[in-house]
Write a structure and sequence with these properties.
The chain is of the alpha/beta class. The chain has a single domain, classed as Alpha/beta knot, CATH 3.40.1280.10. It is 42% helix and 21% strand. The protein has a five-stranded parallel beta sheet. α3 links the parallel β3 and β4. α1 runs parallel beside α5 and α3 crosses α5. The longest helix is centred in the last third of the chain and has 20 residues. It is globular.
Length: 156
């Protein structure tokens, strides 16, 4: 099952980019045997989509046919890492064509995107910088693959 992170903004070279690429590479390598992956990132250029409505429309456009849309939003539910892993496994086992995780810009998602999303997910009540959210999501994707593979990365 293909997994995409669709995010508003461009990530420049730097430590966040290194972490993002590292976790997605690890997830891709470990996920192959589990039919999870490839993992990719689609970036929405803020200069071409100014404002929450335009950015949300571009994010909606990044949802591939047959993919499950999961918006990262402060209104969403919080999951434990094992629950997140089981969510990915259920989507895969139910035959989802992919999963697209949607990360909005500084003003978040508009109502149309939240209504289009199949699920809203939150990393807790705190607000996180959008570049770090990408890294945190990539780490959780790798952790989920590790959990499903029975690997030692996640300790309970």
């Amino acid at each position: 099952m293909k997994i995409t992170i669709a995010a508003v903004g461009r990530m420049k070279p730097g430590p966040e980019r290194v972490l993002l690429d590292d976790y997605l590479t690890r997830a891709g390598q470990a996920g192959r045997a589990l039919a999870l992956g490839p993992f990719s990132v689609t970036e929405i250029d803020e200069r071409k989509a100014r404002g929450r409505t335009a950015q949300s429309a571009r994010l909606i456009g990044a949802i591939a046919p047959g993919a499950v849309a999961i918006a990262l939003d402060e209104r969403g539910e919080t999951l434990s890492s094992p629950d997140f892993a089981h969510l990915l496994a259920r989507l895969r086992d139910d035959g989802a064509g992919g999963a697209v995780f949607l990360i909005g810009g500084a003003d978040g998602h508009d109502k149309a995107l939240r209504a289009r999303a199949d699920r809203l997910l939150s990393f807790g009540p705190m607000v996180w910088p959008h570049l770090l959210v990408r890294v945190m999501l990539a780490e959780q994707l790798y952790r989920a693959v590790s959990i499903l593979a029975g690997g030692p990365y996640h300790r309970e």
